[in-house]
Design brief:
The protein contains two helices and 14 strands. It is mainly beta.
Length: 191
């Protein structure tokens, strides 16, 4: 059996070292007992909650809602990423994104940042460049509130006011997912 890899963290102290261990419970007790001797507070570092996306088809219901600020990855090969951020009608948030996605099997001309490329998607382009959202650039970061909500453009940064209550979903403005690669790293916070 391979040893587990772990780090023990709190909001203000790093308690113990990261590394392989066959017995996490014993290591945690040792780490807590030796905290003051081996480690000091790290006030300059800020830890934000992170989340591994669960596709909306998942039946997982035991994940508590995210608290803001919140960071997550939005892979280009998942149609809609359920962020676990729940919004109320009228609530405002700021979404900031970085990263690159490729929507063309690795072709350099099909690599885009969160603002997308190739100009705005048009209905007449649907055969060549199928998009979720007409009017937004191909590959741009887009969002929706609720599983059936209307899509809106996010891009590299947007302040959004929820037009409905529900979970925030994010994705890239592409319908064909088979050869998509890359991720957008997204931060969601109060404006």
């Amino acid at each position: 059996m391979k040893p587990l890899f772990f780090c023990v963290l709190t909001t203000s102290l790093l308690l113990g070292a990261c590394g392989p261990t066959p017995n996490i419970a014993a290591t945690v007790q040792v780490a807590v007992a030796s905290t003051h001797a081996a480690f000091s507070p790290v006030p300059s570092m800020t830890f934000y909650p992170t989340y591994t996306p669960v596709p909306p088809t998942s039946t997982s219901t035991n994940i508590p809602p995210a608290t803001l600020p919140f960071s997550l990855s939005v892979p280009a090969n998942i149609r809609w990423v359920a962020t676990n951020v729940w919004l109320a009608t009228g609530q405002s948030i700021r979404i900031t994104a970085i990263g690159k996605v490729n929507l063309g099997g690795g072709a350099p001309e099909a690599t885009f940042g969160p603002n997308g490329g190739f100009g705005p998607c048009r209905a007449e382009d649907e055969q060549d460049f199928p998009c979720h959202m007409i009017g937004a650039k191909y590959g741009a970061l887009i969002g929706r509130i609720g599983e059936n909500g209307e899509s809106f453009l996010v891009g590299a940064q947007s302040d959004i006011t929820a037009s409905a209550s529900g979970q925030l979903y994010l994705g890239s403005n592409s319908v064909s997912l088979g050869d998509n690669t890359g991720i957008f790293t997204v931060r969601i916070e109060e404006p």
